[in-house]
Amino acid sequence: xxxxxxxxxxxxxxxxxxxxxxxxxxxxxxxxxxxxxxxxxxxxxxxxxxxxxxxxxxxxxxxxxxxxxxxxxxxxxxxxxxxxxxxxxxxxxxxxxxxxxxxxxxxxxxxxxxxxxxxxxxxxxxxxxxxxxxxxxxxxxxxxxxxxxxxxxxxxxxxxxxxxxxxxxxxxxxxx
Length: 176
Known about the structure:
Helices cover 28% and strands 40% of the residues. It is of the alpha+beta class. It has 2 domains: 3-49, lambda repressor-like DNA-binding domains (434 Repressor (Amino-terminal Domain)); 76-173, Jelly Rolls, CATH 2.60.120. Strands 1, 2, 3, 4, 5, 6, 7 and 8 form an 8-stranded antiparallel beta sheet that branches. The longest helix is centred in the first third of the chain and has 18 residues, at 3-20.
């Protein structure tokens, strides 16, 4: 799909979610700490957002990131030298489970804003080493090790040994 079509579809999803949750353009921009002009351009399909912006919007809208970028298995997001490929998406009775394959180069890093309440992340490192977790409480893990945390606060990821590969599972509670 051409980038213009992807941006247009993303912008439409953001606008629909914003309106369905009763946010004005200014209100969502303030809640997500993004510029109102940037949000307007994103909704119009005229801006290619960063991963940090997408996570900030998803957190403020209290939806998983796949609600913004699309729920098509194989969808990829790249930021800070880390590429996330959507491998699986399951909607259960109590939570949405997004499973991503992650690959990264040496020194790749990403800072993520807080997600919605009760969202948790679980990373199984399959190759290389990484440092990840809530800012100020990051832990290191290598192949065969697991890192888990509640991601309702800022958190970060950094590849400390490459080649790097991991599986990331994000659980987003469904609130009635």
